[in-house]
Design goal:
This protein is mainly α and about 280 residues long. It contains eight helices and no strands.
């Protein structure tokens, strides 16, 4: 006989797997909310303690930087807690968390560096330090995602790795130049050095990718790259030989004129490639 026939109550059914999963998710969600609230109050407590006991020994900007840095650390903690895993596996979840933490850590470094340490170094050395920190951040943020940057069925060989190595080498060159040699030259001459290094970088990348693009039947952009190189060369000549004889606004005007000229030439080439209005569908 069943329990109901004997006058007893029917025992409740055991929760199914889906119900258990939902209950577990709700519990996990509540714990994350509690942790976020706790971290916020911890940041407020840190700000109160800092302002009461330590802020008097620092300036306004430095104290603002400390409070902002604490808030950024709070953001990094919450990013780790709240960024979900990407469906389908592949480690997308931890990559997203690492990217968020890396970017926030770099911003925190900049916020602390500028008011506390910037004055101990020259302008060029500060540029070098900030650029080096940015390179490290890009490495932390971007490198874990390189496996997702495949070109489909197109085999690019070692070109992506070579391009990444070239970009890293260029960045390290600029960092080294700014730290050790930039003070020996004027500001405009340093601009020329950077522009010239960009020219070599573009030539190297063009040599890597243009033949590949032709082989696979893609538009290789050779004309556009040539126009870019010519523009950079003109700017390099101007800034090295002539810019110091003019003030900042005049050099800015020259730069804008060069943008108009080479932008117009590039637009004309692109228009010719599209064969005029016939390439547009106005229907």
């Amino acid at each position: 006989m069943s329990p109901s026939e004997l006058g007893g109550e029917t025992p409740p059914e055991a929760p199914g797997p889906e119900t258990l999963r939902k209950t577990k998710r709700r519990g996990h969600h509540k714990r994350k909310i509690s942790a976020s609230m706790f971290s916020f109050f911890a940041w407020v407590g840190f700000a109160i303690i800092w302002l009461f006991f330590f802020a008097g020994g620092y300036g306004l900007v430095e104290n603002i930087a400390v409070v902002i840095a604490g808030f950024l650390i709070l953001g990094a903690i919450n990013a780790v807690m709240w960024i979900p895993s990407i469906p389908g596996g592949g480690g997308g979840g931890w990559r997203a968390k690492l990217s968020a933490v890396g970017a926030i850590a770099w911003v925190t470094f900049v916020v602390i560096w500028l008011p506390f340490y910037m004055e101990s170094y020259t302008v060029y050395q500060n540029i070098s330090i900030l650029m080096l920190s940015f390179i490290i951040m890009i490495g932390v943020v971007a490198v874990p995602w390189t496996k997702f940057a495949a070109l489909g069925d197109l085999d690019a060989g070692r070109r992506p790795s070579a391009s990444l190595l070239a970009a890293l080498s260029w960045s390290l060159f600029v960092v080294t130049w700014m730290w050790f040699y930039a003070e020996l030259y004027t500001g405009y001459q340093n601009v020329t050095i950077v522009l010239t290094s960009v020219i070599f970088m573009v030539l190297l990348l063009g040599g890597l990718w243009i033949p590949w693009a032709r082989r696979v039947g893609r538009h290789n952009g050779g004309t556009e790259i040539g126009m870019l190189l010519l523009w950079l060369a003109v700017l390099s000549i101007w800034f090295w030989f002539f810019a110091d004889g003019f003030d900042l606004y005049q050099n800015l005007a020259v730069f804008l004129v060069s943008v108009l000229i080479f932008g117009g030439l590039g637009g004309g080439i692109a228009w010719k490639r599209m064969d005029g209005l016939g390439s547009f569908d106005f229907d």
